[in-house]
Amino acid sequence: MSESEKPQGKMVKCPQCGKPALYSPENPARPFCSERCRLIDLGEWASEGYRIPVNNQSSSDSLTSIDDAYDDEDGSNDPRH
């Protein structure tokens, strides 16, 4: 294969199976190695298989109001004034 026939792009690890995958416009499944791996990943997202962990605290326990954040006596640090 000559230089001009070589696929241009970077080789990366397929996020689904770990095989080498060409990261280039020549690979329509990029960053996956194949359409199969791309569809498996899409199915995981669609079935909510990937989730961001959340803390089970109530939101009122972990958040303060804007007034509590600027509770100094003279209000000099309050950007609203």
General description of the model:
The chain has 81 residues and is an alpha+beta fold. It is 25% helix and 10% strand. The protein has three helices and two strands. The protein has helices at 35-46, 59-62, 66-69, and strands at residues 10-13, 20-23. It has a two-stranded antiparallel ribbon with strand order 1-2. The longest helix is centred in the middle third of the chain and has 12 residues, at 35-46. The radius of gyration is 25 Å and the shape is elongated. The mean pLDDT is 79.
Features of the shown structure:
alpha+beta; 81 residues; 2 strands
Secondary-structure blueprint:
Blueprint: E1 10-13, E2 20-23, H1 35-46, H2 59-62, H3 66-69
Antiparallel strand pairs: 1-2
Report the total helices: 3
> Which structural class fits the helix and strand makeup?
alpha+beta
Distance between the termini: 69 Å
Give unreliable regions as ranges. Answer: none
Mean pLDDT across all amino acids: 79
Please state the CA-atom Rg, rounded to the nearest Å.
25 Å
Strand content: 5-15%
Placed side by side, the strands forming the largest sheet appear as: 1-2
Please provide the count of β strands: 2
Helicity range of the residues?
10-25%
